[in-house]
Amino acid sequence: MSVQSAAADVDVDLRHLFASLARNWLRILVVTLAVNGLAFALAWFAAPHYKAETKLLIETRESVFTRPDGANDNDKPILDEEGVASEVEVIASTGILKQVALKLHLSRLPEFDETVNMSALGRLLVIAGLKSDPNEIPPEERVLKKMREKLNVYSVEKSRVIVIEFSSEDPRLAADIPNAIADAYIALQGNAKLESNSAATDWLAPEIADLSKRVKDAEAKVASYRAQSDLLMGGNNSVLATQQLSELSSELSRVRANRASAEATADSVRKALQNGGSLDAVPEVLSSELIQRLRERQVELKTNIADLSTTLLGNHPRIRALKSQLADLDGQIRSEAQKIMKGLLTQAQTAQARENQLMADVNTLKAASARAGEQQVELDALQREATAQRQLLETYLTRYREASSRKDRNYLPVDARVFSPAVAPSEPYFPKIGPIVGAAFVGSLLLMAIVTLLQELFSGRAMRPATGARFGQIEQVAMPATRQEPALAEIKEADDHAALDRTADAELPAAVAEEVAEDATAADAEPVRSILGEVDIEKAAENLIETGAARAIFVSPEGDEAAASAVLVAREVSDAGLRVLLLDLTASGAASRPMLDSGLFPGITNLLASEAQFSDVIHPDLYSDCHVIPVGTADPVRAMRAADRLPIIMQSLTTAYDLVVVECGPADAQGISRLVGEATEVFLSMLEPDDEVAQAAVTLIEGGYPDLILVTPIGHESPGTPVPGRRTAA
């Protein structure tokens, strides 16, 4: 079955969907076992492959005892993430792989060179041009290509560990190749250091010889210039003139200080003598021994005068004699102070003379020091050049000795080491029969389950209309080989009430209704026919085809026998090439039973009760290309509770089929209101023109269907009788 979705408002019936797995268990099991058998055969006959790995650690191998002088952590090689990634590329380089291939003679093995022991089938394919000739590629490139296919070099994340992984059909070879690659890499790094060391010694030797000559020349220039400039060196490694100038400057400062001190003292003594002040405040006066003795005598006289004043009067001769002696002492002290002042002035004059002499000497030394300074600048420049040349020479000599010792002793530590060499694996990593067969079993089982579920979904058997949905889903049932086009198109959304509002445009004039009613009361019903018009089955079918009607509503007031008109018209239109479906809404199933020969098929009541889907209730007519939806087997009371869904179902059926024929039985205008939509024709099926038919016609016309057409099945065979040329039941 092919499924055409009529709307998105559908639900998946999970119970029905997963029940399909149980219904198709045999097919699923057979396919799964077949896939497992194929997987087992492929795994069993596949050539085993072995894998081994060698692990390298990138680290600095130089120890603290052998590290060159002055080397620090900044001199270490780059060991960051980019540095490790660079080493990975070096390990997988063509040069190393060529060395390993040559060392292990890989070009002699068929695993690495398919030209070795090529099969007859392979040669025939090459001759026929179905396979490229491997001999056109150089043998070295063929071996390298195979090695790269089997080699995997990578660095462990967030570490300086490099893994060399190799796979081969030979377990011993799977271990030997990564170990050989690691050895070749370490040898390559050692050779690189050896070349670097040799290049350093080769470059340092002539540089040292040249530097030795330049150092000798620079030092000779320093000595020659020193002799020519007569730059005598004094203490503290300074020029003699500069040192003398410094000493004279110090002496001049001292003399100036002494002179200033003597002048200040003499001035203070002069002021004391002139103002008659006390001389006790002048230190130089007090430091004189004579003045000190005079002061002592003066104090003694003052004491005697004070003692005698207690018993004698002031004019007493003894007191007067003592006072006279005291006055003489004051005069002597002042006379001695004047002498001290003169001495200080003399000292100041001497200091002034010494200062003048020193000033002259300083000026002379300034000129000499200036000349010496200019000469010293040139001398310092020569000395710096000589010192720089000597330091560079010493550095080169140190490095040269270190490089020579490493070269002679062959000590060149490589910044990598193998800490986990590869060993020959005992078990192949491919094929793993158990996991392969298990994966094939699970995968095939899952795939077949998915295919089965998808088939069930696409067929529509697992779909059911959603609760409260406006649209249903219709599935196409098997049709005759002559009409394989789909019976259903895409279902469009329609308003529930758009097709029900027809009474305003189809109102019957009162005069017509009264005339029909009067004629219906007569014994002869010929007037009813004259007003409505009576047609047979063929004309009714032609009318539906010409007008392009989408719905044909048949009302049969005379019961089940009159329902034959709907069946005959549906078959007639279907034979004309249109897609037709008959919906049986009679209580007894009079319209669908002759088309199906049974009343036990699910139908419209099952659809309304949500017990079935469209694909379950649409059945093919046994005697034509028409489809039919019977009454069904569900509880009619329960089905009528969902009668509001009839407009939705009709809209869906109208979208899927060219014409939907509905047999309503003895229904009135209100009863068929849910079934009417755009492009709808209403027919009244009549066997005999009696009062019942006339009254039904009047009711329908008054109910808003003035274009009512009378049709009669009289003169046609029973719907259950096969007609030549039509499809018959198998």
Present the secondary structure layout:
Layout: E1 3-4, E2 10-12, H1 14-23, H2 25-45, E3 50-58, H3 81-91, H4 94-104, H5 120-127, H6 139-150, E4 151-155, E5 161-168, H7 171-229, H8 240-275, H9 283-286, H10 289-308, H11 317-409, E6 416-420, H12 433-459, E7 463-465, E8 474-475, H13 510-520, H14 526-532, E9 534-535, H15 537-547, E10 551-555, H16 564-575, E11 580-584, H17 593-596, H18 604-608, H19 614-617, E12 619-620, E13 627-629, H20 636-640, H21 646-656, E14 659-663, E15 680-685, H22 691-702, E16 709-711
Parallel strand pairs: 9-16, 10-14, 10-15, 11-13, 11-14, 15-16
Antiparallel strand pairs: 1-8, 2-7, 3-5, 3-6, 4-5, 12-13
Helix pairs in contact: 1-12, 2-12, 4-6, 4-7, 7-11, 8-11, 10-11, 13-22, 15-16
Task: Describe, in plain words, how this protein is organized in 3D.
The protein is 54% helix and 9% strand. With 730 residues, it is an alpha/beta fold. Strands 9-16-15-10-14-11-13-12 form an eight-stranded mixed sheet, with helices on both faces. Strands 4-5-3-6 form a four-stranded antiparallel sheet. It has a two-stranded antiparallel ribbon with strand order 1-8. The longest helix is centred in the middle third of the chain and has 93 residues. It starts with a strand and ends in a 19-residue tail after the last strand.
